[in-house]
Task: inverse folding
């Protein structure tokens, strides 16, 4: 199959999935697109928004639209790591002998919803680290691989902070995207009321399977990134570090720590998917700019002055996109 045909088929799959989710989710077009991009890019997503905006419904609908195994973990302060990854239990076999048997936890699924992840203790949150990074779980010295594709979509409430445990930077870094869930417009709110208070109950049906997702993922990795485009992405990441030669004045003033190398990896893999959605087999500067906020906002740690001034990390990223080290303009 020619490259043009593969790109067209990729867009057909993507469009079908997006339209199926749209049968249930009102508005939030950019949010839905970014979640699918992250899935194709083999990355996890952190959804942040106030209660009632449909974060959980979005994840459930995504699972319904694909023939994949779905599980939900409701994170609470009393949740233990074994409740997530599983544990060995003592059972009696056919011969009447007792032996340990591994009981799989809810993390053994293709799509895992980590609902209100910041309500669990750091010890429990850390149980997700290996699964998110290595796609495996280690219990009692035995490593068990997770079935692909594997995607974690975590939600957190930015308002009600009592009794919560902010995610550590090491875990935040495991998320490809951090997406902000906006409040619906007047028209969207009206459509939500019509869909949820009437007789009909909208739901999604399977339109893609695991093999198709892996096929889309493989194609995205084949997208070409020119050296000057890659250099632009890398300079943008370095510009978030206050002590870097590429740091912007805003980063030097308000940032304590900049993005990790995973930020650069995330920008590139997400930009490759964006290029395919635009019918191209090469990454452009616009692709890099389109995914910069989603990939960098949670990887920038503000200093005391930045916290006091309530500087938004998105403003830092915007500054990085337009400015560069030593007062020179970044290539565009």
Result:
């Amino acid at each position: 199959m020619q490259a043009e045909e593969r790109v067209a088929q990729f867009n057909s799959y993507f469009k079908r999935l997006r339209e199926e989710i749209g049968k249930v989710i009102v508005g939030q077009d950019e949010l839905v697109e970014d979640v699918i991009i992250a899935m194709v890019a083999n990355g996890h997503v952190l959804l942040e928004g106030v209660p009632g905006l449909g974060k959980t419904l979005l994840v459930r609908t995504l699972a319904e639209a694909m023939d994949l195994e779905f599980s939900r973990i409701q994170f609470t302060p009393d949740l233990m790591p074994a409740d997530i990854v599983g544990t060995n239990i003592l059972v009696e076999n056919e011969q009447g002998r007792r032996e340990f048997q591994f009981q799989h936890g809810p993390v053994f699924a293709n799509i895992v919803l980590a609902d209100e992840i910041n309500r669990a203790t750091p010890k429990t949150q850390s149980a997700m680290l290996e699964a998110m990074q290595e796609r495996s779980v280690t219990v009692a010295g035995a490593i068990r691989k997770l079935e692909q594709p594997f995607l974690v979509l975590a939600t957190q409430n930015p308002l009600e902070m009592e009794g919560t445990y902010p995610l550590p930077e090491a875990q935040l870094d495991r998320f490809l995207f951090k997406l902000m869930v906006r409040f619906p417009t007047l028209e969207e709110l009206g459509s939500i009321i019509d869909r949820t208070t009437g007789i009909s109950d909208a739901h999604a049906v399977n339109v893609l399977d695991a093999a198709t997702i892996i096929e889309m993922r493989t194609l995205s990795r084949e997208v070409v990134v020119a050296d000057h485009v890659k250099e632009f992405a890398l300079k943008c990441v370095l510009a978030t570090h206050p002590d870097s030669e590429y740091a912007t004045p805003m980063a030097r003033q308000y940032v304590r720590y900049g993005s990790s190398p995973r930020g650069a990896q995330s920008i590139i893999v997400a930009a490759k998917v964006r290029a395919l959605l635009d019918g191209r087999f090469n990454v452009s500067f616009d692709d890099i700019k389109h995914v910069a906020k989603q990939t960098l906002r949670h990887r920038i740690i503000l200093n005391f002055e930045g916290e006091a001034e309530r500087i938004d990390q998105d403003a830092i990223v915007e500054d990085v996109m337009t400015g560069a080290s030593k007062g020179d303009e970044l290539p565009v």
About this structure: The two ends are 33 Å apart (CA to CA).
